[in-house]
Amino acid sequence: MKILITGSNGLLGQKLVYALADRDGVELIATARGENRVYKKDGYIFESLDLTDKDAVSKIISSHKPDCIIHTAAMTNVDACELDPAACELNNVEVVRYLINACLPFKSHFIHLSTDFVFDGEAGPYKETDAPNPQSIYAKSKLDSEKIVEDSALPWAVLRTIIIYGVVDDSQRSNVVLWTKNSLEQKKDINVITDQLRGPTLAEDLAEACIQTALRKAQGIYHISGKEVMPIIDIAYAVADFFNLDKAYIHPVSTAELKQPAKRPLKTGFILDKAVKDLGYKPHSLKEGLKIVADQLAGKS
Ligand SMILES: NC(=O)c1ccc[n+]([C@@H]2O[C@H](COP(=O)([O-])OP(=O)(O)OC[C@H]3O[C@@H](n4cnc5c(N)ncnc54)[C@H](OP(=O)(O)O)[C@@H]3O)[C@@H](O)[C@H]2O)c1
């Protein structure tokens, strides 16, 4: 099976590269904007691809004719999307049209990544059939892109996920676990939200769900996250406990106090039954995930 992934420099994209590069029966084409920032360079083909270049998208898809696309790339900074809606529309919505049009001749299985933010956070945890009600430009862009995928003539799956954490090579971005750990180690004060609840997702678990979706040719919407739903501040406390760091630097703040540009849903979390049944999804607990993160950090140092 020929699998092409977008956003291979991102958190999920990198995990997919490591999981798929040397896998029997899979030919991997990893694509990312700019240079390849994944340390592992063998076992797959890398193509530099800015997805906003429609002709380049068409050229690369036509030359590789993938059986499956895992579209992880997106403008993921929620506040940046709120402040620049045109860039958000281009990177999160228009680009999906380019990819789908390019894939039509090859009937590629289109696996699209989306978010818990499509929900308003009034009634989490959510199942796949619950009604979305996006509250921000980013959230609306992801829901619009879901609709484009669903209305396409391709076989498709939409995997919605929640706060992804994990270790990456040469990351230009952080995530809740690394940010908390690094800040506390440097004795830096951090403000962490008390009244937003999430199901933190280990990047490796999400990558495996994407791979199972591809191998099983699963179609439809799937909710993929960690199995525990907790206030974001409890994720920070769990990191402090696990790495034996001083919690005094963690300062509780409410959503109202933080005044972020984009509105966030208060309580999300997912019901995972469909993914467990169809994809054999077995997420790690947060504690198990932190152990995996710690082992990987030890290996890299
Ligand atoms: N991270 C989360 O907590 C979270 C939560 C819910 C849903 N999701 C969804 O899950 C997916 C994967 O997230 P992630 O955490 O892996 O995101 P990430 O680490 O921010 O990676 C996203 C990647 O997309 C790339 N990208 C953006 N615009 C591009 C373009 N025009 N052409 C090519 N590449 C482009 C970025 O490239 P550069 O590195 O060059 O900037 C980046 O490497 C996304 O679709 C996101 O919306 C994420």
Tell me the overall shape.
globular
Give the oligomer, counting copies of the same chain as homo and different chains as hetero. Answer: single chain
Strand order in the sheet with the most strands: 3-2-1-4-5-6-11
Sheet-strand content, in percent, reads 15-25%
Q: Regions with pLDDT < 50 over 5+ consecutive residues? A: none
Q: Report Rg.
A: 19 Å
Mean pLDDT: 97
> Topology as H/E string?
EHEEHEHHEHEEHEEEHEEHEHHH
Count the DSSP helices.
11
> What is the helix content?
25-40%
Structural class: alpha/beta
How would a textbook summarize the main sheet? 7 strands, parallel
Let me know the number of strands: 13
What ligand molecules are bound, each kind once?
Answer: NADP nicotinamide-adenine-dinucleotide phosphate
Distance between the termini: 35 Å
Question: Can you describe what's shown?
Answer:
The chain is of the alpha/beta class. Helices cover 40% and strands 18% of the residues. Helix 8 packs across helix 11. The strands form 4 sheets. Strands 3-2-1-4-5-6-11 form a 7-stranded parallel β-sheet, with helices on both faces. Strands 7-10 form a two-stranded parallel ribbon. NADP nicotinamide-adenine-dinucleotide phosphate binds next to helix 1, helix 4 and strand 5.
Write out key terms for the chains shown.
binds NADP nicotinamide-adenine-dinucleotide phosphate, 11 helices, alpha/beta, 301 residues, 13 strands, 7-stranded parallel β-sheet, two-stranded parallel ribbon
